[in-house]
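agent: user wants the full assembly modeled, not chains individually. Plan: 1) parse entity lines 2) check alphabet per entity 3) run joint structure prediction 4) return tokens. Steps 1-2 passed, two entities, 925 residues total. Proceeding.
--- entities ---
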Amino acid sequence: MIAVPFLICFPFLVALILMFIKNEKLQSFIAYIGAALIAAGVGALALGRIMGGMQPIRMYYSTEIADHIIFGGEIFLMLLVTFLCFKYNKKAISLLSIIPTAVIAAVEFRISTGPTDHICVDRLSMMMCLIIGVVGSLIIVYAVGYMSGYHLHHKEIENRSNYFIALLFLFMGAMFGFVLSSSLIWLYFFWECTSVCSFLLIGYTRTEEAVNNSFRALWMNLFGGTVLAFGIFYFAYYMHTLSFREFINAGVNGNVFALLPITAMAFAALTKSAQLPFSTWLLGAMVAPTPSSALLHSATMVKAGIYVLFRLAPAMSITTTGTMIAFVGGFTFLVSSLMAIAQSDAKRVLAMSTVSNLGLMVACAGIGTPETIWAGAFLMIFHAVSKSLLFLDVGATENTLHSRDIEDMHGMLYFLPMHAVFMFIGIAGMFLAPFGMLISKWAALRAAVDEKNIALLLFIIFGSATTSFYWSKWMGKLISYPHSEHSHINDITRKNETVSMAIQAVLMIALCVLFPLLSKVFVDPMLQEMFHTSGEVLSQGLLYMLVVVICFVFAVPPATYYYSRRVHTNKKLAYMGGINTGDNTGFVDSFGEEKKLWMSNYYFANRVGIRKIMLPCQLFAAAVLTVMFCIVLGVSL
Amino acid sequence: MRNKIISVICYLVLAPVIGGLLEGVDRKISARMQRRVGPPLLQPFYDVAKLLKKQIISVTNAQSFLLQSYMVFMILTGAMFFAGSDILLCMFVLSTAAMFLYFAANVTSSPYSTIGANRELIQMVSYEPAVLMACVGFYLVDGSFEISKIASSQLSSVLYLPGVFVAFVFILTIKMRKSPFDISTSHHAHQEIVKGITSEMGARNLAVFTITEWYENVFLMGVIGLFIVNENPYSIISAILVILFVYFLEILIDNTSARMKQFKMLEMGWAVALVLAGCNIWVLMLIK
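--- prediction returned ---
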């Protein structure tokens, strides 16, 4: 199992090397090799696990040296954060780093705990590793080309692309460490690592807006981390162990000392997954260059929170914590999909929809039955691939069009066909039947009914209506006929960006076709491992039906397309009451002057805009979480 | 299995006939309500036959292919329904079909068609919650999403689902684009957005659209029937009576009300889904 330490340490090593390399050619060479080796490492790990029968492996019971290194790392992170907080005059935030570090130090040196395994490889962490490894390395491949294009256009920003790519590697290493750790102390360290990395990535451009947004992300994530640190302290103090497994077992067995720490951890997960009231940091993260948004939003950072909630799911089901977390998740799903309607900036739509989808995953985890975790796992897989594809494609489109407004994508299928197709695949994967997301919604809906959770049921039902609204109006923009017929646009997307996106598009389609297989071979056994119960979530009959629908979706549009191409069509001008100017792009107004035709979508910003409803929703979610803590504290103390 | 195949074939063959007849009846009754004689009962078939003979006229070539996809997915929805498969999956495929209609209207970049398409999206958002509520209601009552099981329950589902039933009938007006909710299109071309989504559909494309509407209406009436039928075969007769009554109600509403604003529609659609269907389902959750 050499692959495990390799996956955690190697990205750190690459990051360290990249910090000192200014030469662009050498930089990209190292980045490619690094990404390839990481992907290979994940592949090797997966292969090894399949050969070894997939039994969970626990290892590294005595790790004195590594413990010291990790403690040193924590001190370093604390010093770094404190330094930056003082440099940018946000001194109060540094407390959120100093206090938890002190708490963790107290746990490590003052509380005697029994020996525990530090690394555990089971199916859930395997799934996470695959997502991070595959999507993450594709994002890095893309980032190398993107950053040089980015700095060509943004001359005002200092070129530190080696630092940027190094951070991406660092991030991946931290994520691998996070999903593989089974010691609470290690978990906490990698948790802080991802928080700090995201903070540095968001602040990359060093503009005022970027700095402000990065500090917002920092304090929200560190706040979650602080709550987590106290939770760990409480658990270690009473239970004298730092094993993550014991932590969950105690929760499953209804141990009274586990309730508070589990709630604390779930709360921390909400901050990381940008649920309400903490959604604003993810919106602010949009100022960073696209690869970092893709990495933060799709494959890694936000999924860390979901991963933790999945782990906690058996312990959370039918507890107050679980119900409240599910409620917050469902609520976030609905209102952020409403807010997404009002956005015309493509990246902001993606951000709001990320928050919304994460909300659905959180709701699934909060209910915590095998069916919902099944749904959540598929949501996670599909979301990771399609969101990262969408982000990268929006980034590439922005470099070419110099705009990422959806209104400017009107008719993109005609002037940037490749990007439009990638976008179409990504969006279809997000909501259209019969792709994976929809099946997950099916399962989530059923689970909400089975659990007799009326609030969640309503959230899912109304949320899915609003979700399809904002996606379909975007799709409609892509395929409409362009406003002006002769615009030629020079596509400046680099080859590595195209390759990265093409792989993801293929991956997306492959996932759609193969997901029944994936469910049978991987996800069902994973649930058995987590819940010790067996059973299929999807009935055989439904599966066949799905295969039929999938065949239809892949066969019908192409078939009708080729059929209708052969049929002779008499082309006429669009109807404009007889006042066209000779083509479809303009009309004559009442003064007899020619006007350009410009069509745009509905946004309803004055009804569902972020400014309008974000604050009340945040307050409401905060109130729900406060009630949750009050109840849990009342029970525990 | 054989029964399923027979019922699917029946749907494929008979649905356009029944749908066309329903439309003929619709026109006739509407005309009588307006003190006109009205066209012959078979007029819709004559219209479609004539449209099919004409050459295709359109603004973009892509429209035909999108409309044909719309038709195929609509037929698939109905076929899945009458084959007795999963109702929730049926509704999901229905929404995919609706998406293709939106694309077909939007792809032209014609102003009236585009605004009709945008309004059609609002229609979809308005009716979708109540549709999903109906699926959930069936699941709560009969313990399964499978239509064949729902149809063979001991008692008619409507006895447990009065609120859901009313909500579904309500949004049927939105789904069928009948006044007061004929916001994205109408049967007459003299409104403020001409004919909305169908503005740019000409000749054979319009025929495809009309036939698909017939398939859709028969499917929707099938869902109404599903509320009524139970294991007793005679229940089918009462189901047909209820369907005819609901259809008459739609015609009556269509002829007696003026068009609403789109937000009014959205609010009403959601309020009905939330209050009538939601409370119904909540009560069921508590007592079941």
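agent: reporting back. The mean pLDDT of chain B is 91. The two ends of chain B are 32 Å apart (CA to CA).
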